[in-house]
Write a structure and sequence with these properties.
Largest interface: B-C, 55 and 39 residues
Distance between the termini of chain C: 28 Å
Mean pLDDT of chain A: 93
Strand order of the largest sheet of chain A: 14-13-24-23-22-15-16
CATH topology of the largest domain in chain C: Glutaredoxin
Low-confidence stretches of chain C: none
Number of helices of chain A: 28
Number of strands of chain C: 5
Structural class of chain A: alpha/beta
CATH class of one domain in chain A: Alpha Beta
Number of helices of chain C: 7
CATH class of the largest domain in chain C: Alpha Beta
Oligomer: heterotrimer
Radius of gyration of chain A: 28 Å
Helix content of chain C: 40-55%
Radius of gyration of chain C: 17 Å
Number of strands of chain A: 35
Order of helices and strands of chain C: HHHHEHHEEEEH
CATH architecture of one domain in chain A: 3-Layer(aba) Sandwich
Strand content of chain C: 5-15%
CATH topology of one domain in chain A: Dimethylsulfoxide Reductase, domain 2
Mean pLDDT of chain C: 96
Chains: A alpha/beta (about 900), B alpha/beta (about 425), C alpha+beta (about 150)
Structural class of chain C: alpha+beta
Strand order of the largest sheet of chain C: 2-3-1-4-5
CATH superfamily of the largest domain in chain C: Glutaredoxin
Bound molecules: flavin mononucleotide, iron/sulfur cluster, FE2/S2 (inorganic) cluster
Largest sheet of chain A: 7 strands, mixed
Chain lengths: ~900, ~425, ~150
């Protein structure tokens, strides 16, 4: 600890961050723009000025930028010195000479860091009497709105977009008083993280374009802490609502998971909730050949018949909460509950979880991934399947540089200095993949091969690390040299990380990754394995008992079923048309609970409207094994109900087991935990609905929430009672605890004087640190069993050999289009490509295909039409087919296929 | 009086070729340095000479070199850069040295590079110096042919490559860290200091940037010693300086004179005094980013310390004369316009402040200024003062303005009272 | 498409630096030397030659004043408007040229013969007023000498 003196008072501080961040952590309101805890400082805006005194006798001091000062023992500074206060106000005054003052029509208004800083510095009288400069704006695509006149040139946008997130197509142009931030020409921002510009920009230059379509002010929105449903990482989000519709999603800080950022799928994926195809009514089909009819209520007698007499089978879902999945399994019984994913996927996930639980490798958080100093990616296109993990990996690749900088006395936060000091060193970074990926640019070695060969590559790395591992040596000497190089780099690292995959559908790759981890731990290292699980609750679901979809189909075709209940799952996205159809043919009654019309929902006899993550409470488990709770931001509106509540009703009707009827969310949790003690943490450590903080609930609405009385005036002028919420400790009103809520319950960020999301800092122990009042949300479920000896996997696959006329078709996942729910939002839909198939150019010629034109292919009896594109990293005899949940029939990849026609 | 820097420069004659320059003693210092001296000896010699950088800031050259780490981990490259950007308005001394005697610079660079053990050196030359660029490139070829550049120079095993990079405009690229960014092919934005270029400079490697005039001194000091150098000056700061005068004087030009020559001597004797009908009203002593001096300062000795005492900076030592027929507000406005245009756009005070100041000065000239504007200008000079901005550009720009407001306040006020520029006929 | 000559010249420059992007400014100057100015297409071509994004190249190109991102005439007149030339009367030189050619700063004559631009100090202050046309410096200007000088550039 270091002692410093601020305006006469002594403080003990850690001293590893710059002076600005140190003061902010101590609670001082020093205004700033260009600094960002994750981006470091560059000293551009000059707003964070403080006085620094040379020693105890120095009366005069000198103005320094606190963001560019290291904290040193005995340092004496003043934050409130009149000279620096005047200077800071003058900086704002300078910025205001060109700022358009269009706050009333600016989407940032009311949560604008520039507004806050203007008020904070006290600049309020305009002396500048001349014309302002103006700019033209660009169309940057569907996600981000551009309004350059508002720019205050803090350079944060380009520093985030380029330096932090590796984007290429946003930059600064011009110089002097004409610096322009944008693209070379109008066009869609290519980065998967472009939406963060909205939060990174301290004013209204980059704003949320979908929000603009249904705009509401920050203070007029009701908010809830939530968790992203669109991939397996479980990034924390804040969901905001007005008039019953979700208006936007912002990142919610979690120091162990997503930090300050989220990806564009997560930010803009919510629109499926507002999709006109939402199932909002109970629908009922009296006889099989009719369309679904609206039904007033589910016929109780009919249902009780079903449940009493027949066999009921339940199919769960990796995109439904633990509670809903558990409820279904409780209703139908463990033996009749199936996970709703293919047998292959289930096996892969269970194996992956068992590897992570075995203790041979650590399951790292995204934050821990950032700290790794050597990375090997086996078979995963992280940017598309787990975007935020890619962002963490990008930071990890800088660790070597940061180490060199530290030796030269350049701290990490001195961002440009670090980047200038070392412009091309990267931490050891290796990728094995069947096609090119965006992270390739970070890699020292890239090995492109068929999935089986990637596994072999992994096995050979393991055997090069530790001679005890099953031996696989490549006859090709060059390849073996690369293997050795990678093995050496991983062995030399302090925190080696293996990123392995489920999405490529190859179990050998998982086994090989485990072997590398075993080899490294045998050599005394502490390796980590990170896995991008396919869906938001893949891990949680895998921890419940239950068979796979294939087994469900088997059971049903063997024994038949009277009733099949499908929970939030479109089987047509997981089974071939034929197999899915066969399930439906064999069942007398199909009950489907879901949010959106899809092929499965269309086949329901009884279709029940299930609430989404926005109108329900639930728990999901992310890739790290972290269980996290999402809270409802919208009061669920009858007849829509949480899936577990529908199931509870069914239990009641069926008169089966009254232990399994629940009227409150906490009761489901209690049942879940008593059946599956592995989840006990979510009952013991997560807050229950009757939790009160200083005797109060937490308000979902800002203190300034306005217009409540007028909102429903078209219906009734008397103000309705705020909805009651028995499932969470949050209130649907502005009444509630005034202060920092427990970290897992933060519905929005606000602090006196800090209306923008920059107020996040106030909720942390230090910038980029951990949340106060409970630490980073989430409970690790994985029991690190710490097996002392784990056996190596031994069965190597054969090397891949292309057969003439036959192609090995591997899946190519897309950030936009491969995930079901986000694809159903209109904005994301604009970014979804048509089905495409990738070959190397030689192969295209050989197969007589034409690039950029559609061709037909047949894969396991399924005919696919896709646009032919080239990717020269794809090996001969292999093709990469886009995985899209819409506009394409499901086929189980990888699989063999061939060209049908051009 | 000795004039080591300009001795072999004759106007209207091409510069000496390598062989001719050697005949009159050129490259002797280089031979001595590389054959007889260890790098550390050279650094301590330059340190003891107290040679102060001629690029404007007057930083001690020996000290700068000594900050370069001796052993770089991994044996990575070190760099030497000659700053030949010279874009400071009113400054034209480096052009003279470049065009007049390129081998003097090259031999100085070889010694300097050897002293810091740089293996690559660049001359960052201003784009407009087309003639100088050709001359320098030819001279470099000659030096390669003579074996003074390239591998194993003079059989010592020391290797050095010297390249020319011609800039693409922008004054800020003369600031050493902006220069480094520009040399890396990037936008010419200054870098944060620390780390200083000696730690992390060009391509992240230890780097020394020196002005052309500074580097031209090196061979002479090596050849003749530190004491000789000190004695050249009148005031003990060492050496001679190339002083220059432009404006309404009889003989504008450059002269190599002992450091410490008085302002009066330079203007009245060497520059031939004011032209008929013009009176001296003020002097910008060392390029546009230095404070005005006035008639009262005519006996100031032109060295770093004395000019500082007089309230200005020696800067580049090339002065611009403000005469009584030129409006001081227009004079300052012209310089501010330059600085506003040349701001890199990185930090707020400079990017937003200079255009505001420029607009106010414009309003003075147009006769629309108000009394409050003087207060705004005064405030802006403090607001853009040293430490408040990211680099020294804006503080430099404020120097003529703040001293102008002090010395020519009446003239500013007259613009307000008369609602037009008193120097411009109505 | 970059011409073979342009490519060769750019390649020569890249050899002076540790990585190609460092030759970005040189590449811009080379292409401008051949084509007079830098079009959007030229930015794209340089970007692919140096393995940079177009945004990266354009960011650099728009920073530097001597990189022209708009077409210029066959001859570019750069009139020094800095302090010494101001004292020595550049304004009347400018007015003379401007009247004679009927263009203002920033404009090109309709026949494409001249583009007239202001320029910061040319480092020729002892011979002010000065101007540069293409690569040639002209100084100690008078109204008469300007006429003669302009004649040389067609
Ligand atoms: C805005 C600005 C412009 C500068 N321009 C030049 C220049 O054109 N030539 C030069 O030698 N130094 C210039 N300098 C000073 C350099 O930063 C640096 O101090 C100098 O090149 C070091 O050389 P020296 O130690 O030999 O003087 C400039 C500084 C600033 C702040
Ligand atoms: S003072 Fe600031 S804006 Fe001006 S040139 Fe220096 S860094 Fe750039
Ligand atoms: S936050 Fe310190 S200069 Fe911008």
């Amino acid at each position: 600890m270091i002692k410093i003196q601020i305006d006469g008072t002594f403080y003990e501080v850690k001293g590893d961050r710059n002076l600005l961040e140190t003061c902010l952590a101590l609670g001082f309101d020093i205004p700033y723009f260009c600094n960002h805890p994750s981006l470091g400082s560059v000293g551009a805006c000059r707003l964070c000025a403080v006085k620094k005194f040379a020693d105890a006798d120095d009366k005069k001091g000198r103005v320094v930028m606190s963001c560019m000062e290291a904290v040193t023992e005995g340092m004496r500074i003043s934050v409130n010195d009149p000279a620096v206060k005047t200077f800071r106000a003058a900086v704002i005054e300078g910025l205001m000479t060109n700022h358009p003052h269009d706050c009333p029509i600016c989407d940032e208004g009311g949560e604008c860091h520039l507004q806050d800083m203007t008020v904070m510095t006290g600049h309020n009288y305009r002396k500048f009497v001349f014309k302002k400069r103006t700019y033209n704006n660009q169309n940057l695509g569907p996600f981000v709105q551009h309004e350059m006149n508002r720019c205050i040139q803090c350079y944060r946008c380009v520093r985030f977009y380029r330096d932090y997130a590796g984007g290429k197509d946003l930059n600064v142009f011009g110089s002097a008083n004409h610096v322009y931030f944008g693209r070379h020409k109008d066009g869609i921002l290519e980065s998967e993280f472009s939406g963060n510009l909205v939060e990174v920009c301290p004013t209204g230059v980059f704003t949320d374009k979908p929000l603009k379509k249904h705009y509401a002010r920050k203070w007029d929105m009701t908010n809830a802490p939530s968790v992203c449903m669109h991939c397996g990482l479980g990034c924390n989000i804040i969901v905001s609502e007005r008039y019953g519709s979700v208006r936007r999603v912002m990142s919610r800080y979690n120091g162990s998971v997503n930090g300050y950022f989220i990806c564009d799928r997560g930010r803009f994926g919510y629109e499926f909730i507002n999709n006109p195809d939402r199932i909002k009514k109970i629908q009922f089909r009296p006889s099989k050949n009719n369309n679904l009819q609206e039904a007033r209520e589910v016929s109780e007698t009919g249902l009780s018949e079903i449940f009493k007499s027949g066999k009921v089978v339940g199919i769960g879902s990796p995109r439904a909460s633990l509670e809903s999945n558990f409820a279904l399994s409780a209703l139908v019984g463990k033996n009749n509950f199936f996970h709703g994913i293919s047998g292959k996927e289930q096996k892969l996930i269970q194996k992956a979880v068992s590897i992570l639980e075995s203790g041979i490798a650590h399951s790292p958080s995204l934050k821990e991934i950032e700290k790794c100093d050597a990375v090997l990616i086996l078979g995963e296109d992280v940017t598309n399947t787990a975007p935020m993990m890619a962002l963490s990996l990008r930071q990890a690749s800088r660790n070597k540089t940061l180490g060199i900088a530290a030796k030269l006395g350049i701290p990490k936060w001195n961002d440009n200095a670090v980047r200038e000091m070392d412009q091309d060193t990267k931490s050891p970074f290796f990728i094995a993949s069947s096609f090119s990926t965006k992270l390739d640019e970070l890699a020292d070695e890239i090995y492109n091969a068929a999935p089986g060969d990637i596994a072999r590559f992994g096995y050979s790395i393991a055997s090069a690390i530790n001679s005890g591992a099953p031996v696989l040596i490549h006859p090709d000497e060059k390849l073996q040299n690369r293997v050795r190089k990678i093995a050496d780099a991983l062995s030399a690292a302090e925190n080696p990380l293996i990123v392995t995959c489920i999405t490529s559908g190859n179990e050998d790759i998982l086994n090989a990754s485990a072997n590398i981890a075993i080899a490294l731990s045998t050599a005394g290292k502490k390796p980590s394995i990170a896995i991008a699980f396919p869906e938001c609750n893949s891990v949680g679901l895998s921890m419940l008992d239950g068979g796979s979809l294939d087994e469900a189909a088997d059971t049903i075709s063997k024994n038949g079923a009277d009733t099949l209940i499908i929970l939030e799952n479109d089987l047509y996205g997981r089974l071939s048309l034929k197999n899915a159809d066969s399930i439906f043919e064999k069942c007398r009654q199909i009950i489907v609970l879901d949010h959106l019309m899809n092929e499965t929902a269309k086949r329901a006899d009884i279709l029940l409207p299930a609430s989404t993550f926005a109108d329900s409470v639930g728990t999901i488990v992310n890739n790290e094994g972290r269980a996290q709770r999402f809270y409802n931001v919208i009061q669920v509106a009858e007849p829509v109900k949480e899936s577990w509540r529908w199931i509870s009703d069914m239990v009641k009707i069926s008169e089966k087991n009254n232990d399994y009827t629940w009227d409150k969310f906490d009761n489901v949790v209690a049942s879940l935990v008593s059946s599956y003690p592995v989840f006990s943490g979510i009952k013991e450590k997560m807050v229950s609905a009757d939790f009160r903080f200083f005797n109060e609930k937490i308000a979902r609405q800002n203190k300034r929430f306005s217009g409540r009385t007028a909102m429903n005036a078209n219906i009734s002028v008397s103000e309705p009672k705020p909805p009651q919420d028995n499932d969470s400790p949050l209130n649907f009103s502005m009444e509630g605890y005034k202060g920092d809520p427990p970290s897992s319950l933060i519905p929005y960020y606000w602090s006196p004087g800090w209306n923008s999301s920059q107020s996040m800092t106030k909720y942390m122990d230090e910038p980029e640190g951990h949340l106060k009042e409970g630490g980073d949300p989430g409970i690790i479920i994985f029991s690190n069993k710490n097996k002392s000896s784990v056996d190596y996997f031994k069965n190597f696959p054969d090397p891949f050999k292309a057969k003439p006329g036959e192609l090995l078709i591997v899946p190519v996942y897309m950030i936009f289009g491969s995930e079901e729910l986000s694809s159903k939002g209109e904005t994301i839909a604009e970014r979804i490509s048509e089905p495409f198939i990738l070959f190397n150019e030689k192969e295209i010629t050989k197969l007589q295909l034409i690039e950029n034109e559609k061709s037909k292919f047949i894969i396991n009896q399924v005919v696919i039409t896709a646009i032919v594109k080239h990717d020269n990293k794809i090996p001969d005899g292999v093709a990469g087919l886009s995985v899209l949940t819409a506009g394409m029939q499901y086929t189980d990849l990888p699989d063999l296929g061939k060209v049908l026609s051009t | 009086m000795e004039t080591p820097l300009t001795e072999h420069i004759k106007e209207n004659r091409p510069p000496l070729r390598l062989s001719d320059y050697e005949k009159v003693g050129g490259y002797r210092g280089m031979h001595k340095a590389l054959k007889e001296m260890a790098p550390a000896d050279i650094i301590s010699l330059i340190k003891s000479s107290n040679l102060m950088g001629r690029g404007g800031a007057g930083f001690p050259t020996g000290l700068k070199w000594s900050l370069v780490p001796k052993d770089v981990p991994g044996g990575s490259l070190k760099y030497l850069i000659a700053n030949a950007d010279e874009m400071e308005p009113g400054t034209f001394k480096d052009r003279y040295l470049l065009e007049g005697n390129p081998h003097q610079l090259i031999s100085g660079m070889i010694i300097a590079a050897y002293a810091i053990q740089a293996r690559k050196a660049y001359i960052f030359i201003r784009w407009a110096y087309k003639k100088a660029e050709i001359i320098i490139r030819n001279a470099i070829s000659e030096a390669y042919e003579a074996g003074y550049l390239g591998n194993n120079i003079l059989g010592t095993g020391y290797n050095l490559d010297l390249y020319v990079h011609s800039s693409a405009g922008r004054y800020i690229c003369g600031e050493e860290t902006a220069l480094i960014n520009s040399l890396e092919g990037k936008r010419g934005l200054p870098r944060a200091k620390p780390p200083f270029p000696a730690t992390s400079g060009l391509f992240g490697q230890p780097t020394v940037v020196n002005n052309v005039e500074t580097l031209c001194w090196i061979p002479h000091i090596v050849e003749n010693g530190a004491e000789w150098f000190t004695k050249l000056s009148i005031t003990g700061e060492g050496g001679t300086k190339i002083y220059g005068v432009s404006g309404r004087v009889n003989k504008p030009g450059l002269w190599e004179l002992p450091v410490g020559t008085t302002l009066r001597e330079i203007i009245e004797k060497h520059a031939g005094g004011m032209k008929d009908g013009y009176r001296l009203k003020g002097v910008i002593p060392g390029g546009a980013s230095t404070d005005f001096l006035t008639e009262a300062h005519m006996d100031t000795r032109m060295d770093f310390a004395s000019v500082r005492t007089a309230g200005s900076r020696l800067g580049t030592g090339t002065m611009i004369i403000l005469d009584d027929k030129t409006c001081p507000v227009a004079f300052i406005h012209n310089m501010i316009k330059f600085f506003a245009l040349e701001s890199c756009g990185w930090c707020t005070p400079c990017r937003e402040g200079l255009p505001w100041v420029q607009k106010i000065l414009e309003s003075f000239e147009e006769g629309t200024a108000k009394t409050e504007d003087i207060g705004i200008l005064e405030f802006q000079t403090q607001y853009m003062g040293p430490g408040n901005t990211f680099c020294a550009h804006a503080p430099g720009a404020m120097e003529p303005l703040q001293s102008g407001l002090k010395y020519f306040c009446d003239d500013f006020l007259k613009h307000i009272e008369e609602k037009h520029c008193p120097w411009r006929r109505l | 498409m970059l011409s073979t000559k342009e490519k060769e010249e750019i390649y020569e420059e890249t050899r002076l630096y540790p990585y190609p992007a460092a030759a970005c400014i040189d590449a811009l100057k080379i292409v401008q030397h051949h084509r007079g100015w830098i079009s959007d297409e030229a930015i794209e071509e340089i970007a692919s030659e140096l393995d940079m994004s177009v945004e990266d190249v354009d960011s650099v190109a728009t920073f530097y004043t001597r990189i022209y991102r708009k077409p210029v005439g066959r001859n570019v007149i750069l009139v020094c408007d800095s302090i010494s030339c101001m004292v020595m009367g550049y304004e009347s030189m400018y007015k003379h040229i401007s009247d004679k050619l009927s263009v203002h700063f920033g404009e090109t004559t309709p026949d494409g013969r001249f583009t007239l631009l202001p320029i910061s100090c040319l480092g020729d202050c002892d011979h002010a007023p000065s101007l540069m046309i293409n690569d040639d410096l002209h100084n100690n200007l008078t109204i008469n000498s300007i006429d003669e000088i302009l004649e040389k550039y067609q």
